[in-house]
Amino acid sequence: MARVAAASRIRMSNPTGVVSFSFDDVPQSGCRKGRGILESLDVAGTYYISGGFTQKLVDGGEPFHDWDDLRSLMGGEHELGSHGYGHLNYQQISIDEVRADLEKNRQFFSELGLERPLQSFAYPYGCLNTRVKRACAELFASCRGVLGGINTRTVDRSLVKAVPLYSWKLTERKVASLIERAERDAGWLVFYSHSVIPHPNAFGCTPQLLEFAVRTAVRSNCRVLPVGQALEYVQQAHPV
Question: How far apart are the C-alpha atoms of 196 and 175, rounded to whole Å?
Answer without folding.
Answer: 16
